[in-house]
């Protein structure tokens, strides 16, 4: 409930701070005293758009602060979702700076207007005459029916499934679009895929072939140099191998004479072994050197194929070419297996739809069962409010379509006169009738849901006498389940409040300001008497006022 409202530098208000209590609170005041300013300030702190015209003194900032007791609203999860500190008494503050910049805070944490408006609908319902048109809104009509049907958990479950279904449908659409696009490129990609597949490309193949071709292209020079190298090593007179053998024999003979000679002998032996090994490999290499023109042609053709493929795909190596092959392969496979993916996604959609249909069926059943109860409650309440012949025709029609709150279409028709035709509320009900219907609806909602604080802004306009007493009684009944604040011009309603506040204008230093104060018992008598008889309060008005209060 709204426990306190503080306003600084807003419209005609310099500074104002007022505490509110539970139950039924009444706000009265003369026309033009500033009741709309009060609601404007409350709307501002709850997220309405602001501008510099809201500032009384444009050189100072405007601050509106509301303290709201929220321990009964089960809002811990919401505060966690929006990353805010939860406080049983939450403070909402809105500031408008002289620059025109607006800031909002919840428990001293800066928030966006989006978050503020999300919290607003969970806390305070400000209801004025023009909002009776909400009665013609199908979503609002569904909310009335679902409140009686206790459909909240079913609709929550349905919405989760509905969200999942929409997600799957979006994924299916993307798959189908992707398939269509891929199909356009499929033939070309398949040609590229087969071309690369047939090429049987290996990562190191190019380097190996290039080296091989280099040898084949220089075969004569290789042969000459290998033969000369062998001659230098194995010649009986000047060959390195024979000279080393001689050197090895000489050092072996003196190796035993000193450690120094022994080490030199060992080193020469090691060199001799290495040379012997080199000679062996030179002989093998010389024997294996053979020019095969067919092999050179084959290597040339193979390399040319690789070069052409690299050029075609704008790459510089077989490694990059293999990456291209992998990419094209995925595109080909994606098209060839797309039907399988699409079919799987369609099966998921069918499965979710089946579950959703069951939940929607339960919602429809509960709605249908609650219609007679809603009809009866509305007609009884409206009869008390002077609309004895009010009748409703409420019908549910299940469809194949998925809506955000189920699969139903709703017709919510009204007739105010006995034997009259049913029609849409906004077409057949007058402003006064709409006000009473809305009051009846809010009464039903207050008994079946955890409504926030509700503020009625002159919802009693156009009624008087016994009907006003009934409206007051209904508001009193509602205030047992929630905090009700009523701005009224009817003394019959004003007298029924647990608390009574008066909006009034005062002139301070030649400047008009709006104020709000809570009335004492004696002040209430005078206020209600004035509402009965005007400024010149008569004794009979005072007596009548006391009777109303008692």
Automatic annotation (TrEMBL):
Where in this chain does the entry annotate a coiled-coil region? 158-236
**Superkingdom of this protein's organism:** Bacteria
Q: Which UniProt keywords apply?
A: ATP-binding, Coiled coil, DNA damage, DNA repair, Nucleotide-binding
Pfam families (alphabetical): SMC_N
Q: Which SUPFAM superfamilies match?
A: P-loop containing nucleoside triphosphate hydrolases
Domain spans labelled RecF/RecN/SMC N-terminal: 2-507
Checking InterPro entries in the record gives:
DNA_recomb/repair_RecN (IPR004604), P-loop_NTPase (IPR027417), RecF/RecN/SMC_N (IPR003395)
Q: What does this protein do?
A: May be involved in recombinational repair of damaged DNA.
| NCBIfam families with a match to the protein in the record | recN
Q: Which family does it belong to?
A: Belongs to the RecN family.
UniProt-recorded name of the protein: DNA repair protein RecN
Q: What's the source species for this entry?
A: Polaribacter marinaquae
């Amino acid at each position: 409930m709204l426990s306190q409202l503080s306003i600084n530098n807003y419209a005609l208000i310099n500074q104002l701070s007022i505490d509110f209590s539970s139950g039924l609170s009444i706000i009265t005041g003369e026309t033009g005293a500033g009741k709309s300013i009060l609601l404007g300030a409350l709307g501002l702190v709850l997220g309405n758009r602001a501008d510099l015209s809201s500032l009384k003194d444009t050189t100072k900032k405007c601050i509106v602060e509301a303290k709201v007791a929220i321990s009964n609203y089960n809002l811990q999860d919401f505060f966690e979702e929006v990353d805010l500190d939860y406080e049983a008494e939450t403070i909402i503050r809105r500031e408008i700076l002289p620059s025109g910049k607006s800031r909002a805070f919840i428990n001293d944490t800066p928030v966006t207007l989006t978050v503020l408006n999300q919290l607003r609908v969970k806390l305070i319902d400000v209801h004025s005459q023009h909002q009776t048109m909400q009665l013609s809104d199908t979503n609002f009509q569904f909310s009335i029916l679902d409140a009686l049907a206790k459909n909240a958990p079913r609709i929550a479950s349905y919405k989760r499934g509905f969200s999942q279904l929409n997600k799957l449908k979006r994924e299916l659409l993307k798959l189908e679009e992707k398939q269509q696009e891929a199909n356009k490129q499929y033939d070309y990609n398949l040609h590229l895929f087969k071309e690369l597949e047939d090429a049987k490309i290996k990562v190191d193949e190019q380097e190996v072939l290039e080296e091989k071709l280099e040898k084949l292209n220089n075969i004569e020079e290789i042969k000459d140099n290998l033969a000369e190298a062998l001659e230098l090593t194995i010649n009986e007179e000047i060959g390195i191998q024979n000279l080393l053998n001689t050197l090895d024999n000489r050092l072996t003979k003196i190796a035993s004479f000193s450690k120094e000679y022994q080490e030199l002998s060992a080193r020469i032996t090691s060199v001799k072994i290495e040379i012997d090994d080199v000679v062996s490999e030179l002989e093998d290499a010389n024997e294996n050197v053979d020019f095969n023109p067919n092999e050179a042609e084959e290597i040339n053709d193979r390399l040319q194929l690789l070069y052409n493929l690299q050029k075609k795909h704008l790459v510089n190596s077989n490694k990059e070419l293999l990456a291209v092959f992998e990419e094209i392969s995925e595109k080909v496979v994606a098209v060839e297996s797309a039907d399988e993916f699409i079919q799987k996604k369609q099966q998921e959609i069918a499965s979710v739809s089946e579950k959703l249909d069951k939940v929607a069926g339960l919602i429809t059943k509960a709605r249908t069962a609650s219609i007679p109860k809603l009809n009866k409650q509305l007609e009884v309440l409206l009869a008390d409010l002077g609309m004895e012949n009010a009748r409703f025709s409420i019908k549910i029609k299940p469809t194949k379509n998925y809506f955000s709150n189920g699969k139903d279409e709703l017709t919510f028709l009204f007739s105010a006169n006995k034997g009259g035709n049913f029609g849409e509320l906004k077409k057949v009900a007058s402003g006064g009738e709409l006000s009473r219907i809305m009051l009846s609806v809010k009464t039903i909602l207050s008994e079946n849901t955890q409504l926030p604080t509700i503020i009625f802004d002159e919802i009693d306009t156009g009624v008087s006498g016994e009907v006003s007493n009934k409206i007051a009684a209904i508001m009193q009944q509602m205030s047992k389940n929630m905090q009700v604040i009523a701005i009224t011009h009817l003394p019959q309603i004003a007298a029924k409040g647990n608390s009574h506040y008066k909006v009034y204008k005062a002139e301070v230093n030649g400047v008009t300001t709006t104020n709000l104060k809570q009335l004492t018992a004696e002040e209430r008598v005078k206020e209600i008497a004035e509402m009965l008889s005007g400024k010149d309060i008569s004794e009979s008005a005072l007596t009548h006022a006391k009777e109303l209060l008692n």
